[in-house]
Design a protein that fits this description.
homotrimer, about 625 residues, alpha/beta, Rossmann fold, 3 domains, seven-stranded mixed sheet, binds zinc ion, Glyco_hydro_42_N (chains A, B, C), metal-binding (chains A, B, C), metal ion binding (chains A, B, C), EC 3.2.1.23 (chains A, B, C), hydrolase (chains A, B, C)
């Protein structure tokens, strides 16, 4: 694994560059990510390029033996470009233009901006495509950041109509698939279809699902246009992009198919504060992040990445500026996070950023250096981590224990139609992931069409659509299977299947879901040390079908078992999903044991990593 | 009482219709509500009508002896119509168009849409007006659903100006009535008046009240246009409309004056979850609904209906899709709800819907059949209820105990000017209603101009405007009277009367309210087992006027008594209003007795109905 | 000190005026504020003035010996004027016009409205400029009320560009100062700069700060235009304006520089309910207001006022209409508030309003008379207060104990960039103020450039920008100094200084802040009877620099001491800031002693005032 850093030479006086470069090298870093926000310096006026400063910056870094990940600057088009075509702005769900003044002020469907993005990408690719310092390219920056994937602009509407026409061929087919006869929503042509925002009450869930798929596809094609240019002008360089945490606005499996390496940006403290963890965990882990945040994404994005190549393109090194509250990490956490990434197979951990900026939006975002150029606390830990990394031999492959099936479509569907507040496929997946991790198991988060060979346990937390490939691989799977609610409950266009849920999985599960209901907080059915909460499916099972396994004190069946298959009839959360997964792990003879609070483990062929989040200590032992 | 069901033949293959019709008849249903969302199938293209399918559907149902309530489809105009005149959309309070894509995408004031609504109504009335299967017509569907009564469109503004000119005749009269000299809000002509939204701070409450009245009147005249057409082309059929729960967007007394039967849509579980019940009650009654939800509306709408004819046009049969959490009813509740409606005098209970739709917005809304066409749990209970209904002889009239006075204007005024957060006339009425019901009393919820003959007790929970008719009937009333705060505190145009509150009721109450204040949660004055909270009126009373009755430990007077009249000086809620109403009931020698938690009763001439909501059990005994 | 009242003769029949005037005089009032909302009566049609009624009203009041504060009516332009140029409306941050229908419906940058405001001001000034009854003028009313200082209109955008050009001279200077290279936000000309609203994510804090300064300056210049006219046509009259509570939308030091007397509007109960006090305090002081609310503003605005002349232009006399809950003051509070204002040096306390209006937006806002013209409870207390005031001789100057440094820019900066939710410079100042008051100390709230002579203690709660004048006066200050977090952490354009925080104060404080972090509720470090919460600065101090003073049980340093200077490294709130200020007061030998809960004191040369808020008792003793 290499270590790297994000750097903005354009922010600093040129005579500082050599000092920075030397210190980076001394710290043990080998890759520097630059350029992704520099459009206004690369092309200060329409058509006038200024390459000189960037040439020099690259040379200075290269001279210290550092290699470059060069970003296309399409996340920050300059004001002169925006003013040429202000309708390049995305429109929010409220119909309002999202204007210039920060970043990501563009609509993925705007043809004019797509041309501009291609133009600047080509210019950079031609300039630096065969430069020896360039190790890789990053396209744009954090697609979807600030909720920018969905745009409700005229450009998006027009593109959506074309997309629908391509997908459904005939308007009758679309009306039929969506059930538009309901509420007289039938269309006579694709040109009658609008975007699903600003309707009187919620639009058809099938309409929303189509729009979510379309919006994701627009990101993919926007990215692919850059990838095509870069592959042409800069052969043999990796192409990457930096994904985000707990973000599902586009399908990362689709994006990753066009990339060599999938990167992501890891901010465990900010994510803990801003996402749905309990108040108790938000306090307990305020300086560490919940122990499964980083690992979940490592395992998720490794599963998305073509050939499993992935990296951390931005690693939190201190307090950030964007959460409600922004504490500093505990001493030891920057090293721990680095080694946790390594344990999960990262190619690179790149800290964000080299030096804290004294100005603009992120002036309170820590770096490895303080704004005055002196070392920030993280720098020492990065050096320690660099030494640790250097000492270790090859890790070997991660041990295969459990696979967890996740698809982006699942999360879109539960967002569109939660039915019970808080029922989200993403968080169901996180809960199941955490249950596995607390038992010390390795987890691969895989797409529905992934091979399940070699695992002892497969978990499908919540997958409303079950592709044929998944149904088939589950049928053929010899290990233990745990399936959560809503799985198999919908067809491709959000319709309930004629046989009801779980659709294609009915034989496997050994029953049919005849009624689903959702339960408010406070309405729970108590089991031993777990409870039924949030969601409850009633199962009708044939002779020889599933039998109740976990039953609450009042007789409510929390989970069913059919040979090697368990069905979780309540929402997969808390102690219930922990117990259920533990049972499956034991039945599958996996090396599962309850770890102490805050402790996690990752096994590779040659080493075992142990992480004590409460103490901020990471330790590595050779496998024996 | 008849039982019926809501049915959408256009959703299902035609060869299924006869099966459905036969099963409906076997279940004990006799009426089927159809057609109200079928515009795009009735008129698939502008001016081209397709009656054939609807003819056949009606025939199939009729052949099984079922009769039809046929809905005008004006709640769901098709996209081709919307595209002809996109300004038919209502504008929200935020000024944004509320677009096509769900339902109710029209402004009640839009003249073009009014013409279209008349056109489709005429077409249906001419086609089916004298068809023997047609028992009744339903106009549109749930006026106001999704907050659609108020529109802030140019069409509404223009209509509002005409409405104001008609009401006030001269602009000086309007300026004077509203007190527009305050803040220089005086107008020189009706054409200067805008809608009261998007003002810098709140608009004049008189301005809002006029707009609320206008908005209600627009619903009434929109509905009346359909009624006139239907009466002309379809004589001798009942005309009905389905009102909603806890909804006060238009004056239901006014609407009902144009109808033969007032219907409403009863979703006790959804209403419990979405409206202001305590967390404790939301959990305790999650599968039953609070025991007064359905009954309150039965008694309210019976009081609104011309000649007291009313029905339940939609009855919840299982989980719905639109609340935050959507549990299934306890076994027994569908029968209980049916019998509760009967006990209150319903002509019809119609379950919504026959079969759960596998597609579109309501795919998670249960029906009597599951999406796969098999019986859902409710079907058995409906059969039980049908048997019970058939066994019973005529109930006879409901026994007269207490009248509760409610006007829609009161709720509009407390919404416009709560003065203390949460002080709502509607919920004051619900609290008083519940207090009466918990004593086992029958309640008639009546309009301010209703006769009070035959009651032992009258409650006026919160009536800022006291029409002369009400003042007169209270003066002449011989039984016990309970009056709540704000009553008599305003004139017709929201001005404080020259003699202050309670205005026309001063002699009756025996005092003048010289100061009103509102109290935050946590500021309470403790009485025995009750407390003063929310609101507090200070009374100045003449010699021989009211005397304190309930006094808190610190001396704060919670209620006053003047002969047969009690005045509640605090907000009518909790144990305070329970005690006060109990005192009045005892003084009035009503058969009041505290029922156990969750138990309710309804007495008719021939039967006593008892409902145990906690156990989901309804029992019926003959009067002895 | 004089007592006065706000009066609206245009609301009442003319034959009532003499009765009102006589009762005012008998109550002990000598000043009457009128006219500020009367534009539609003064100029009922464009260009047609009706002075007759106002002439008579002034005469009637004058005849009773009352003198007038006459308001320019520019807060309420009439509809005919608004219709002439509807683009005079401000646009909200959401880009929507804030329309006619209440008040303050204008944009400060609209040139057309500025002309109209000058025209009506000139007309009034010419008519009444030398009238003997006119004691003073009030410009407009409550600038900024209903959040009206910031407008996002085209007029504001154009004016902002001119303002920026004047401030920065060259666009390169602006780009450099703001750090616009970050995210390619560089501009090529001032005409490329837009307002900072509706950006995709937050705009550059430097952009926001400039917009806040600009918006404040627009208020100042709008006001100055009126002042210039009034000084010309009405010499020797005081000019005043009424500021609000906890309101920082414009720089009150700047505004006051153009006024003779700075007024403010004191509503302690409404402010308690609507601003950030604990639930406990909101209940405990529901009928009194927190004991520091009024005093804080008295001391703040005295410090803003040129020559220290200030007054209470509106004093709450009973329940108001605009808080979530609106209780009545405890008997005694109206007198107590009056005497508290006197103790702090007010020239005038003017009650709002004489008689409660039965109509329009404020019909639930109490007056000294009820709507029926009878005395409201406050009237008796005003008479008592008038008698008290009359009995007292001159108070003499307030004793100088502590100075508290506050600038409006500080609050703008913490609003723009809180970094931790709830970290506000205004509330830091309030906390420090309260800590001083609870020790019985007098406090002067002063501008950063104020002289610190004569104080024993200076507190700088949170001042990100430290002007040279403040740095200098702190260096020369001989008494005790307490400095709070973020102080000195930014330059004039929101950049972190090259030496990091506390910038110019580094030597004084004896250390450098190398890391700042923010802590969520629940993450605290416990000290004896205090805790570290909200914010935490880590200090690097040189040999001989600051040493830890308050250290939490786990070793976290809460505060540092360097000779006479204390640095509070945590957020200044709760017991921590109380202890720290107490230590400084003791070291400074100030007469500090912990007062009982709810008790406060104010010392002048000749009297000591004591206020028991819990008992609603004010007592005055001569100094001995
Ligand atoms: Zn981001
Ligand atoms: Zn509805
Ligand atoms: Zn105000």
């Amino acid at each position: 694994m290499q270590l790297g850093v994000c750097y903005y030479p354009e922010h600093w006086p040129e005579d500082r560059w050599p000092i920075d470069a030397r210190e980076m090298a001394e710290t043990g870093l080998s890759l520097v990510r630059i350029g992704e926000f520099a459009w206004s310096r690369i092309e200060p006026e329409p058509g006038r390029f200024d390459w000189a400063w960037l040439d020099r910056a690259i040379e200075v870094l290269h001279a210290e033996g550092l290699r470059i990940i060069l970003g296309t600057p399409t996340a920050t088009p300059p004001k002169w470009l925006y003013n040429q075509m202000p309708d390049m702005a995305a429109l929010g769900r409220d119909g309002k233009a999202r204007k210039f003044g920060s970043r990501r002020h563009y609509c993925f469907s705007h043809r004019g901006y797509r041309e501009q993005a291609a133009r600047i990408t080509s210019a950079m690719a031609e300039r630096y495509g065969s430069h020896p310092a360039i190790a890789a390219w990053q396209t744009d920056n954090e697609y979807g950041c600030h909720d920018t994937v969905q745009s409700f602009s005229p450009a998006a509407r027009d593109a959506f109509r074309l997309w629908l026409a391509a997908r459904y061929t005939s308007i009758d087919a679309l009306n039929q698939a969506w059930g538009n006869v309901f509420w007289s929503m039938e269309y006579r042509s694709f040109d009658e279809i609008d975007l699903p925002n600003l309707t009187v009450t919620e639009a058809n869930p099938a309409h929303w699902l189509a729009f979510r798929r379309f919006s994701s596809d627009q990101v993919i094609s926007f990215n692919r246009a850059q990838v095509d240019i870069l592959r042409e002008s800069s052969p043999d360089r990796d192409i990457t992009h930096n994904a985000m945490g707990f973000y599902t606005g586009y399908d990362h499996h689709d994006l990753a198919a066009d990339l060599d390496v999938l990167g992501w940006d890891s901010y465990p403290l900010g994510f803990l504060e801003m996402f749905r963890f309990s108040e108790e965990d938000k306090c307990r882990y305020a300086r560490q992040g919940h122990p499964d945040i980083a690992a979940f994404h490592h395992d998720l994005y490794r599963g998305c990445a073509k050939h499993g190549r992935w990296s951390v393109l931005e690693q939190q090194p201190g307090p950030v500026n964007w959460a409600r509250h922004n504490p500093a990490p505990l001493r030891g956490m920057v090293r721990l996070w680095t080694l946790e990434a390594m344990a999960h197979g990262a190619e690179l951990v790149s800290y964000f950023r080299w030096r804290q900026s004294p100005k603009a939006q992120e002036q309170m975002h820590a770096g490895l250096l303080r704004p005055d150029g002196e070392p920030a606390p993280a720098l020492t830990e990065v050096k320690e981590a660099a030494a640790n990394v250097a000492e270790l031999g090859p890790l070997g492959a991660g041990t295969k224990h459990a696979a967890l099936v996740f698809s982006y479509t699942s999360e879109w569907m539960t967002q569109i139609q939660p039915q019970g507040e808080g029922c989200s496929a993403l968080w169901a997946a996180f809960n199941c992931y955490s249950a596995l991790r607390k038992l010390g198991l390795n987890v691969d988060i895989v797409a529905p069409d992934a091979s399940l060979d070699g695992y002892g346990l497969v978990v499908v937390p919540c997958s409303p659509i079950v592709p044929d490939a998944l149904a088939k691989s589950l049928e053929n799977f010899g290990g233990q299977i745990v399936i959560g609610p809503r799985s198999g409950s919908r067809d491709e266009d959000f319709a309930i299947p004629p046989t009801l849920a779980p659709g294609k999985l009915e034989t496997l599960i050994g029953g049919k879901v005849t009624l689903s209901e959702t339960l408010r907080p406070g309405v729970v059915y108590q089991g031993d040390d777990w409870e039924v909460a949030g969601w409850l499916d009633r199962l009708e099972r044939p002779q020889g079908g599933a039998t109740p396994e976990l039953t609450a004190n009042d007789g409510t069946v929390a989970s069913w078992r059919n040979a090697n298959v368990r069905y979780c009839a309540a929402w997969p959360e808390g102690a219930l999903i922990d117990r259920l997964i533990e049972k499956a792990a034991i039945d599958g003879a996996l090396p599962a044991a309850r770890l102490p609070e805050g402790t996690r483990r990752r096994s590779c062929k040659n080493y075992i990593f142990e992480f004590d989040y409460l103490a901020a200590v990471a330790s590595i032992k050779p496998q024996i």
